[in-house]
C-alpha cells in the first residue's frame, strides 16, 4: 500500500540546492536579487475584514460596513511599512485579494501572495512575500483528532473546521536556498476540548516535520504564528520532542517576553520556533514579539504583537 505524504503547517525550511540542479518542486524567479538576510514577520491582525459582504458567510463582524475597518487597514499598512519585512505571514485577515489590494495601492513592494481560506469563516491565514513562492500546501480538507475525546458513536473525535489555518509555502530567496514557511493559527480557547484540538493539530504537524527531515537531513524548519499555546503547555512541549532534526528550539525559553494582549502583554502565545539545522542561520537576538509602532498604535491595531526574526542567507 502506497503512503501518501501530506505536508502540513507556519514552518520554514532552508534547504541547499545547486543553482544548476533543477528538480521537481523547485521554483526560482531570476529577476529577484537577494540580500544578506531575510526578515520574516508573523502577525495576527485581529478580525481584519473589508467592507465587501461575503454572501456565503453570515457573521456580524464580516457583514459590518463600519468605516473603522478602513482605518484599521491603514494602520496595518503603516505597521508593514515600518517593519520592512521580506515576508509577512498574516492571520485573522479576511482574504488574500484584499491583502494584495492594500499592498498594491500603498506600494508596499510585495509581489507574491498565497492563502489558505475557509469556505465558511472569515478568519484566514495567508502570506505575502518579496521573494518567490513555490508550491503552497493547504490543509482545510484534513481531519485531525481531538485527542482524548470520543464522538457520539464512541469513536475518536475528529475536527476539520480550523485546519485551513495551517499551511506550508516553499520560498526561494536564492536559487540555492529553499525555505518552507509554515504558518499557523491554532485553535483558540482554554478549555479541555480546545487544548485537545491543538494537541491533535500539533501531532499532525509533527508527523509532517518528521517526514520532511527524513527526506532531507539538512532541512531547516521555522514554524510561526498564533499558537494559542504558552511555552508551558503540553502542545508546545510536543514541538520540542521527536528526532533531533525535527525538534524545535524556543529562543525565548525561560524569559519574561510576552506577546498578548498588546496593550499589557502577560503571556506568550505568538511564537517563532526553529529546528537545530536552522539555528545557526538565525541572527542572534532577532527573534521575538516587537512594538513596530508606538504602544498605543499597536494596541489599536491588534490584541497581538507581531513576531519577527532575521535569517542569514550567506
Automatic annotation (TrEMBL):
It comes from the Bacteria. Residues 68-304 form the Endonuclease/exonuclease/phosphatase domain. Residues 1-19 form the signal peptide. SUPFAM superfamilies: DNase I-like. Gene3D superfamilies: Endonuclease/exonuclease/phosphatase. Transmembrane segments: none annotated. One of its GO terms (molecular function) is exonuclease activity. This is Metal-dependent hydrolase, endonuclease/exonuclease/phosphatase family. It comes from Chitinophaga niabensis.
Amino acid at each position: 500500500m502506497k503512503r501518501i505524504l501530506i505536508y502540513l503547517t507556519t514552518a520554514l525550511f532552508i534547504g541547499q540546492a545547486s543553482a544548476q540542479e533543477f528538480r521537481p518542486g523547485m521554483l526560482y524567479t531570476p529577476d529577484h536579487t537577494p540580500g544578506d538576510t531575510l526578515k520574516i514577520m508573523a502577525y495576527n491582525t485581529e478580525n481584519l475584514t473589508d467592507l465587501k459582504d461575503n454572501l456565503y458567510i453570515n457573521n456580524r463582524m464580516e457583514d459590518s460596513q463600519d468605516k473603522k475597518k478602513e482605518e484599521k487597514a491603514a494602520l496595518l499598512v503603516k505597521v508593514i511599512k515600518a517593519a520592512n519585512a521580506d515576508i509577512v505571514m498574516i492571520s485573522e485577515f479576511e482574504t488574500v485579494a484584499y491583502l494584495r489590494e492594500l499592498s498594491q495601492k500603498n506600494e508596499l513592494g510585495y509581489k507574491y501572495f498565497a492563502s489558505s481560506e475557509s469556505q465558511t469563516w472569515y478568519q484566514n491565514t495567508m502570506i505575502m512575500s518579496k521573494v518567490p513562492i513555490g508550491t503552497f500546501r493547504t490543509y482545510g480538507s484534513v481531519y485531525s483528532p481531538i485527542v482524548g475525546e470520543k464522538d457520539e458513536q464512541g469513536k475518536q473525535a475528529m475536527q476539520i473546521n480550523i485546519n485551513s489555518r495551517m499551511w506550508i509555502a516553499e520560498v526561494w530567496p536564492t536559487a540555492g536556498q529553499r525555505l518552507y514557511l509554515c504558518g499557523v493559527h491554532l485553535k483558540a480557547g482554554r478549555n479541555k476540548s480546545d487544548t485537545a484540538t491543538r494537541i491533535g493539530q500539533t501531532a499532525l504537524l509533527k508527523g509532517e516535520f518528521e517526514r520532511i527531515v527524513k527526506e532531507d537531513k539538512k532541512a531547516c524548519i521555522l514554524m510561526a504564528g498564533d499558537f494559542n499555546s504558552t511555552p508551558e503547555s503540553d502542545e508546545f512541549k510536543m514541538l520540542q520532542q521527536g528526532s533531533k532534526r525535527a525538534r524545535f528550539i524556543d529562543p525565548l525559553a525561560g524569559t519574561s517576553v510576552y506577546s498578548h494582549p498588546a496593550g499589557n502583554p502577560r503571556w506568550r502565545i505568538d511564537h517563532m520556533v526553529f529546528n537545530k539545522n536552522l539555528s545557526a542561520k538565525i541572527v542572534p537576538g532577532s527573534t521575538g514579539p516587537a512594538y513596530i509602532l508606538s504602544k498605543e498604535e499597536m494596541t489599536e491595531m491588534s490584541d497581538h504583537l507581531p513576531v519577527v526574526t532575521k535569517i542569514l542567507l550567506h
